[in-house]
Amino acid sequence: MKINMDKKFFIFTPIILFIALISSNVFAKDESRDNLYRNDEYQFRIKFPVGWEIKDGNGKSIIKKAVDTKSSSSVIISAKRIPGNLDIKDFSQKELNELLKDSIEEIKSKYSDAKIIEQGVRYLDNRKAIYLKYSFSYKTLDKAVSLVTVQYTTLYKGKYYSIGGGAPASLFQTQENIINKSGSSRSRVGHFISL
What we know:
It is a single chain. It contains 3 helices and 10 strands. The strands form 2 sheets. Strands 3-4-5-9-8-7-6 form a 7-stranded antiparallel β-sheet, sandwiched between helices. Helix content is 27%, strand content 40%. The chain has helices at residues 5-24, 93-110, 169-182; strands at 36-39, 44-47, 53-56, 62-68, 73-81, 115-124, 127-140, 143-156, 159-168, 188-189. Helix 1 (5-24) packs across helix 2 (93-110). With 195 residues, it is of the alpha+beta class. Mean pLDDT is 79; it is low at 20-33 and 190-195. The longest helix has 20 residues, at 5-24.
């Protein structure tokens, strides 16, 4: 059975935007010291790593991002309303596996050197989420950077959410735990829970 094209569209488009924004944030600078972010419109909250600079998103459906300029690491939150009332709980395991496969193909078509390190279905605030960890190279003007990225993507009551982060490959191992904590139990989707 083929996955409904509406379901595919809402997963693939944001994955490519997410990759581009993670890549561009390697060179980011600036702002706030508060590490807890709440969003009433999309009903989620996230606790960003302490000491990271929190900024407004700079792309389509990018809500917030946090940047550690010392390590060139970043965490990015995407959210948007989607037609209907799509929810990841409505996807069969077969459909989730197909979405993972198609997501990987999309990443590899964008970055020829992309390597999938881990993939699967994990949980974000006790909800299923598609999980990918991958490496790729990104070039901009006079700089080339090898990055490693993790991304959790889920749908909840007609809203798309993506939480992920990345760092230069040479620093990712030291940053991975910090980045993953933002996508773990500290993140709350669909409701607010006090820490």
